[in-house]
Design brief:
The chain is an alpha/beta fold. It has helices at residues 41-47, 67-76, and strands at residues 10-13, 59-62, 83-85. The chain has one domain (10-85). It has two helices and three strands; from the N terminus they run βαβαβ. It has a three-stranded parallel sheet, with helices on one face.
Length: 86
C-alpha cells in the first residue's frame, strides 16, 4: 500500500511592497491590500490551497510588525490558528 505524505505549505509574505507606493506603505504593504477584488493578495494565495489533498495548515512567514495583520486576514477567510513565523 502506498502512503501519501502530508504537504505543509509555506507562504512567504515578507517585505514592504515599496515598488507599489503610494498604494502600499511600510505598515500596510501590497500583499495585505485587496488589489484585484475583495481579498488581499495574501488571502488569495491561501485560498488557492483549497481543494488540494494531503495539506496541513499553512505556515505563513512575515515581518514581525505584520504578524497581527496576517492573523486578522486569515481569520477573515476562516483560517483559524494559522502558524505565523516572523
Amino acid at each position: 500500500m502506498k502512503s501519501q505524505n502530508t504537504i505543509i505549505p509555506v507562504i512567504l509574505s515578507g517585505g514592504y511592497g515599496t515598488r507599489l507606493w503610494p498604494l502600499s506603505r511600510k505598515q500596510y504593504p501590497k500583499q495585505y491590500l485587496p488589489l484585484a477584488g475583495d481579498n488581499t493578495m495574501l488571502q488569495e494565495t491561501i485560498l488557492r490551497l483549497n481543494g488540494l489533498d494531503n495539506l496541513a495548515s499553512p505556515i505563513i512567514v512575515c515581518n514581525a510588525e505584520h504578524r497581527f495583520l496576517v492573523a486578522e486576514q486569515c481569520q477573515q477567510i476562516n483560517i483559524s490558528n494559522p502558524t505565523i513565523v516572523h
